[in-house]
Amino acid sequence: MKTQNFISNFVILGGGIAGLTTAIALKKAGIESTIIEAAPEFKPVGAGIVLAVNALKAYQHLGIYTKIRAAGNPVRHLAIYNDKGKLLSKIQPGVNGLDYENLAIHRASLHQVLLAQLDKTFIINNKKTSQIKTTSEGYKVLFEDGSFISSRYLIVAEGIHSVIRRQFFPQATLRYSGYTCWRGVADIPELNLTGASETWGKNGRFGLVPLGNGKVYWFAVKNSTHDNRKYQQFGTRELFEIFNEYHHPIGSVILATDEDLIIWNDICDLNPLIHYAFGDLVLIGDAAHATTPNMGQGACQAIEDAVVLANCLQENSIVREAFLSFEKKRLKRTHFIVNQSWKMGKMAQLDNKTLIGIRNIVLRLMPESLINSRLKHVCNVTFKKLID
Fold it and tell me: What is the C-alpha separation between 233 and 185, in angstroms, rounded?
């Protein structure tokens, strides 16, 4: 395809969780959209993800919660341990005043469920954005292969490295967190985990999340300089050497992983923006408010975006006013998540023995009621509250 004009009034740039969920939300609101995705095809790649209560409520609002629930695995509790396996903190989302348990799901499985809700003829792959131009009739999106698409309204869900955000908001900056991360999935059914956990120690963090059917999603986080390429080459042997003194079953999980499928990347977020809406264009998901993963809210906030944006479009006949309304409703909440997650990461990644000891004592003494109140503030939301 070299050129194609006005395939849709609404074009969504990006076919990740944010883009697909937004297309579903718009469809439910009676608005047809076209998704443009850079990847040549949707492949079953990636690792795991935990959908918190607020994300599950969003999918219930969209009428697809049961489908997503069937593809995932409930997470009965979330625990933090020290490197010797001593419990520091534990919460139970389905018990402590929250309406749902969290749900662990492979990203590929979530994508499959979302894709199944959409008409594939309105999804175009293998189109990597290079820039956009404003026209008298909207926008002309130019792609690296020389083709273009014209649209009246644009929803940008390209992720943290969005080309379009850089064009419209060049002062936006990424922040390197100071730590790097490996992710993988191990096939180790003998563990029979029922809850997720993180282990915090001087060598870094190690997380375990049961995906069901004997599979465990894990992540390993270590302090590092930015873009330390030696870590890109790390496999199971090197990771085992870093974490082999941590409690069972961390070493076993690492060794049970196909190292060819281990994903590595530095952890960055987006310095909070003051605008998400730019006329008839709006940023959503990581393109608008990429966050560190310490609160498990990156994808969850993108899913919230989808429902709130669709509601704004239903309430406002003028699209740019709907986009401004979306911005107003989302700035404060997403800024809070980004900033709190940043602070949590700094606390979790302490590598000084004395400071680690103090932190662990504070975690053990923290009242359960205080932990629950903070969790409810993030997760136990109603969509009436989000859209008002």
Answer: 17
Question: What percent of the chain is helix, strand and coil (3-state, nearest 5)?
Answer: 40, 30, 30
Q: Using one digit for the tens of pLDDT, what is the confidence trace for 22-40?
A: 999 999 999 999 999 999 9
Determine if the peptide bond prior to 249 is cis (ω within 30°): yes
| Location of structure tokens 């047809």 | 32
Residues 6 or more apart whose CB falls under 8 angstroms from that of 83 comprise: 199, 200, 201, 202, 203, 245, 246, 247
- Pick from 358, 50, 299, 348: which is nearest to 178 by CA? 348
pLDDT tens per residue, range 325-354: 999 999 999 999 999 999 999 999 999 999
Domains of the chain and any CATH numbers:
3-174+269-387 (3.50.50.60)
In whole angstroms, what separates CA 231 from the centre of its chain? 23
Q: Is the pTM of this model over 0.85?
A: yes
Query: What's the pLDDT score for residue 185?
Result: 95
Residues comprising the chain, all counted: 388
